[in-house]
From TrEMBL, chain A:
Subcellular location: Cell membrane; Membrane
Origin species: Desulfoluna limicola
Name this protein carries in UniProt: NADH-quinone oxidoreductase subunit K
HAMAP family, sorted: NDH1_NuoK
NCBIfam families associated with the record: PRK05715.1-2
Catalytic activity: a quinone + NADH + 5 H(+)(in) = a quinol + NAD(+) + 4 H(+)(out)
Gene: nuoK
Coiled coil spans: none
Length: 105, 172
C-alpha cells in the first residue's frame, strides 16, 4: 500500500495544518496574520472531509459538497473580516490587536 | 507511472507543509500570504489524489484566486509599511512552553489516529463524478446551497457597508 492510498497520511497532514493554524493565531501580532492562520485551519478541515469521503463515506459526493460549502463560508468570512480590519484600522489607525482598547477599564 | 505518482504526491505534501510553515513563521505579512497560497496549492494537488479534479479547480479558483487576492488587498490598503513588519513579542519561555504542549498534543492525536480502526461503508452509492456532485447540490443539499449564496450576498453587502462607514468617520 503506497502513501497516497492511506487514510492516515491525509489525517496527519490535516492535523499538521490545524496545529500550524493554532500556532499562527497565537504568534501573529496582526489581525490579517490571524486571518491567514484561520484559513489554514479551515483548509485542514476541508482536507479531513475529503479524506474521509474518499476512504470511508457511503456517498462520495457528500464530502466534496461539504468541502465546497467550507470554501464558500471561508470566502464570506475573509471578505467580512477584511472589511472589519479596515474599519478598525480607520477608527484606531492601528493594525495591532493590543492597540484596540476602547472598552478597557 | 506509479513512481511518478508517489514523487508528485510527496511534492504536494512538501508544498503544503512548507507553505504552512512560511505562512506562520514569516516576518512580513505579504510573505505570509505567499506561504498561504503555496500551502493551498499543495492541498489542491492532494484533492486530485482524493479523486476530485472538480474540488482541485475550485480550490485554485476560490482560495488561491479569490481569498489570497482579498488578503493582499487588505494588507496593501490597511497597513502602512512600518506596521507590516511584525513584532515578535513572545518571550523565550512562552515559546518553549507552547512548543512542548503543541508537540505533545500533536503526537497524542497522531497516536489516536493510528490506534483507531476506521470502518469503510459497506457499499457505495454513486461515484466521484461531477455529475453526481451536481445532482447532490441541486437535489439533496439544495437548501444549504441556496443559503450559502445568500450568506455570500449578505457578506459582500455587509463588507461594503462596514468599509464605507469607516471612510465617513475619517472625513468628518
Amino acid at each position: 500500500m503506497s502513501f497516497h492510498d492511506n487514510l492516515n497520511t491525509y489525517l496527519i497532514l490535516a492535523l499538521f495544518l490545524l496545529m500550524m493554524g493554532i500556532y499562527g493565531m497565537i504568534r501573529h501580532k496582526t489581525f490579517i496574520g490571524m486571518l491567514i492562520s484561520s484559513e489554514l485551519v479551515l483548509n485542514g478541515a476541508g482536507l479531513n472531509f475529503m479524506a474521509f469521503n474518499k476512504f470511508l463515506a457511503p456517498d462520495p459526493a457528500v464530502g466534496q459538497i461539504f468541502t465546497l460549502f467550507i470554501m464558500g463560508i471561508a470566502a464570506a468570512e475573509a471578505a467580512i473580516a477584511i472589511s472589519f480590519i479596515l474599519a478598525v484600522y480607520r477608527k484606531f489607525t492601528t493594525g495591532d490587536p493590543q492597540g484596540v482598547t476602547d472598552l478597557k477599564g | 507511472m506509479n513512481v511518478l505518482m508517489d514523487v508528485l504526491f510527496f511534492g504536494f505534501v512538501v508544498l503544503t507543509m512548507a507553505g504552512a510553515l512560511l505562512a506562520v513563521r514569516a516576518g512580513v505579512l505579504m510573505h505570509a500570504v505567499l506561504g498561504l497560497a503555496i500551502s493551498l496549492l499543495g492541498v489542491a494537488g492532494l484533492y486530485l489524489y482524493l479523486g476530485s479534479p472538480f474540488l482541485t479547480l475550485m480550490q485554485v479558483l476560490i482560495y488561491v484566486g479569490a481569498i489570497c487576492v482579498v488578503l493582499v488587498f487588505g494588507i496593501m490598503v490597511g497597513y502602512t509599511p512600518n506596521e507590516v513588519a511584525e513584532k515578535v513579542a513572545m518571550g523565550r519561555n512562552a515559546f518553549l512552553g507552547l512548543l512542548a504542549s503543541g508537540t505533545a498534543a500533536f503526537f497524542l492525536m497522531v497516536m489516536v489516529i493510528g490506534r483507531t480502526t476506521w470502518v469503510p461503508a459497506a457499499h457505495r452509492l454513486g461515484d466521484f463524478s461531477i455529475e453526481h456532485v451536481g445532482e447532490g447540490l441541486l437535489l439533496t443539499w439544495c437548501l444549504a446551497f441556496e443559503l450559502i449564496s445568500v450568506v455570500l450576498l449578505i457578506a459582500i453587502v455587509g463588507a461594503i457597508i462596514l468599509a464605507r462607514g469607516g471612510r465617513e468617520e475619517v472625513s468628518r
